[in-house]
Amino acid sequence: MHRIRRREHLICRWSPGGLEVGIPGRRQWARLSADLTALVEKAGDGIKADDLAVAFGAEHEPEVRKAVQALLALGVLVPVGDGGRPPLWERWGDVAQRFHVETRDAEYLVDSPERAGTVEEIVAGGGAPGAFKEYPDRPVVPLPRRPLPLNASVEDVFAARRTHRRFTGDPVTLDQFGTLLFHSFAPHRFVHSGPFGVLQCRVSASAGARHEVEAYAVVHNVTGVEPGLYHYSAARHALELLDDDVPRERVAELTHHQEPSYEGAFTLFTTAVANRLAWKYRHPRAYRLWMYDAGHYGQTFALTATALGLGPFQTVAFVDSRVEELLGVDPDEEFAVYLLAAGVPDGSDPLLPSDFAFPPPARPV
Questions:
Q1: What positions does the domain Nitroreductase occupy (predicted)?
Q2: Which residues are within 8 A (CB) of 157 and not within 5 positions of it... i.e. 6 or more apart?
Q3: Predicted TM-score (pTM) above 0.85
Q4: Structural domain contains residue 120
């Protein structure tokens, strides 16, 4: 006689009608009455199906058996020994699966008669977040207004684009640093979009041109810039000093001591000012968008660094809450998303990071 149990993890919510449980693998919710909740609780970590059927009295056995079959079909109850999930979600967990399900098939109202009304409602409601973040009371380091020319061909930049983990220790020049920040994070021009007003055109793609990504630089070895933590003001192409005492060791503690995170000339922590997206895109799928945008910015950074003769590095392996504490941001409004770093790359071959061999060593077949 087979045994069944309640699913190990379930995503639940309260609605006006009572407790609801997310149906695993579907963008649906099922309301659990008090009786069904008691049935799931009784199943516990394992019980024979027949024992569960009679646990609430013989007079209720037919209804209980029917409810058990329904809950098994929904995945709220599962056979003992069955994780109830495909291997992917066994590895990533139920919260990740629910997130994936809830962000699928969003209605974007493209070419829909409802679009104009929705846009009008959003704009009329006000509360649009600022397009730029600034620290007007902090000391400012203006950056050169004329970027360095990027004369390398696209073919050469693509061929040389690598993730570097070893640096010479030589300084990066102020012009290199300013050029890299400008192309990676600053607007190049502006356009008018109608109801949503003026939008920025940056090198990197951004959902709805919301450009929620902010950059904070920990300068280690840049000519003309004192070491410290700075916010990059994209509006005025300048550095705003937040903390003049952020040594490499402190960055190391935040990044699990990954040397290339802090051994180059500078470290950039990028964040997402999430409400810039949420104000316009008011559905769970929008939570994906800052991830895409952070990646767009990271690739622009890496390609620009390569064109300038620098070695880029990037990682998401850092302690989010401690990075946000270092930056002094509210994690409910702005959160750490990506670490970018660069320096003068070690090695004579620009096509090859110094800690890799090419071609790969021969292996016996």
A1: 159-343
A2: 303, 306, 307
A3: yes
A4: no
